[in-house]
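Project standup — Tuesday

K.O.: blocked on the structure for the chain from last sprint. Re-posting the sequence here as requested.
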Amino acid sequence: MKFSWPRRHCVALGVCGALLAGVTGCGSSGSGGGAGSDSPPVLRSDCETTVDPASFASAERLLDLNRAMDSFGKRTTASPQHQDYVAWLESQLRAIPGLQIESVPYEIQRWTATRTRLELELADGSFAEVPVAGHLPYSATTPASGIEAPLVYVPDLAELAEHDVDGAIVVTDIGVSSTPYAIITALQWFTYDPDLSLASEVLDALELEALGELGVLADEAHEAGAAGLLFVHNFSREQVPEVYAPYEGLMWSAPGLYLGADEGVVARQAAAEGRSARLTLEAQIVPATTRMLIATLPGQSEERLVITSHTDGVNALWDNGPPAMVAMADYFAGFVQDCRPRTLEFAFTTAHLHQHLVPPARDGSAEQYARRLDQGFEDGTVAAVIVIEHLGAKGMITQPRSDGGPGLELVEGPYHEPNSFFVSESPGLITALQNTVISHDLERTIALRGADVPGLHIPMHQSFGGEGGPYHKHLLPTLAFITGPWTLFTTGLSVDDMVDGDLMHRQMLMFTDLVYALDDMPTTVLAGPILVERQLREVLCSAGDLGLTVCEGTPADPGTGG
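H.V.: unblocked you, prediction finished:
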């Protein structure tokens, strides 16, 4: 199997050359003829029921596809880099015989920082520039000359009311969210942990920088009178360059910059001495178009098994599901249609980094697509959804800085990130996943009911920790894979920094066998108790929106999403 790189696209994007050596030659044909070939594709009729690794893209091929993705640079929603990446994905899909391609456009107001600068007042009253680590996406902007205001240190913005920040630039520390692994384990369906590495961590906690609420906190600080904010990481500036979070796509009411731990020490000292700062954040805000791609590979039945991931990200890991999905589509397209009991649909969603794509709904185009699939499930044309994110994630741990500086240092740990799966209340999905994980010896795997505490709503869990959430909330049989390394939101880290190619290869072989396991499983087995949940949802939604389930876009109220 080869991947086609049409010469006109390679030249336009400037990605041909040494970077892509070993992936394919520009203008080469895809499997069975591909783009530009006059000969019909030669398809295999010896249907596989489990994937032969020799038939699938190799680990090196997957890494090369990942590097090609990474070569586009920072791919924030609707940016030129993101648009080029989606166009490249489309060219790859169109080179695969038998795929039917749909492009769904959305209009947004794209925000792009054009200039950031921070100057701190010195003891003599002059100002000196201090390097910043990044900026709060979709911040309020400042004049070109910046805003000048006294510094006030607020260690924790949850205690904002205890400080007078009116007219000040607030210096605050980015907190750390901590979830004990014992709590996570209580939500599990099963673990596969043959080397007991997960068991050895059960007394530890999952810790990550608490970045998701910083925009809301910026708004609260602005309401209290703050002129701007300086958010301080607990890592050196070199280890957290241009963190892209939060990624709601909402405009925050105060400008915010990120500082590394060393610069944070300087800013806190300046605040303690009553000195001022000059903060500058300029941005371009323009209309832009972003697209979701849907590639359909017909099977014996019109009922679809959906494989999906998002296309926007800022590094080599965040959005590396789509290149691997291209490899999977290429593999399945190499067989005659009779080898596929169900139709396979590959959805490349957008606006993961612009979550409020269609206000007030959240979750980007995944939410819009989930509404469409919700109705499709009711119509008998959708069977289940598989969500793939953050493949091959190397494990990162923290330790005291080796240079003796303030804060912590990120280093690669002894194990890769846990393979975290979130699975709907479906015995069929759970059994199929467990069997394929064990058969591929995918160690450090945990399958969970949800990423939140169960509640009095339908479904009981509302969060799947990432892109899988909207499908699960729309009561679709959903299996979502995600990993969460410390470095997930950091721009500029390379494929080699973040991705284990052999692990990614084993994960994709497992997912391919999972498709085989689910492809001929009866829908009633796939859905299980979800069928009862959908009936109960109909009753609740017919009685009015009681806040107990998602009604908009359900069969009771199809809505207009999608």
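K.O.: great, moving the ticket to review. The chain has 14 helices and 19 strands. Residues 501-519 form the longest helix (19 residues).
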